[in-house]
Amino acid sequence: MELDNNIQLRPKFEQFSPKTIGEIKSTFEKVKTFEAEDFKFQNAGNHIWIGVGLFRREFWSPSLHIELDSYEDGRTYVKGIFGPDPFLWFIFLAMHFIVGGLFIVFGIIAYSKWTLSQPYDFDLFVMSVLSIIWLLLYFVARLNRRKGTAQMRELFSLANKIIA
């Protein structure tokens, strides 16, 4: 899995497993007992969440969500997606929506002032600052993903123990 040159902030993987969903879940329970100190495990239905344990967790620590779909021939289709802590992801998305919403509002105000032949330099300045903030948010997310790459590889390795 290529993590370093991927533009996605939330890398994904897809693969087939020769095991059934029941076999994967039983393997999950076995791995869960041995790795409980280093990792955090949750499951509900055909979904498995694996995260970094409490004592090793950092601000940028990733989590892995695995979705299992069964096929008629007994194989299981596995989809995994890496991401930050759900609360951190919510804050990150909220900041993006706020910056985007303010950009649109100041764009509307600037257009209105332009049509009324009023000065709109301040509005364009604010829109420029909001664009820079948006780029900074993106680069902070990339930096956090780069810091969490080693832990992502650990989670992927653990997922392969469960799936394969």
From TrEMBL:
TM spans (from-to): 87-112, 124-143
Domain of life assignment: Bacteria
Entry keyword annotation includes Transmembrane helix: yes
Keyword annotations of the record: Membrane, Transmembrane, Transmembrane helix
The protein's name: GTP-binding protein
Native species: Flavobacterium microcysteis
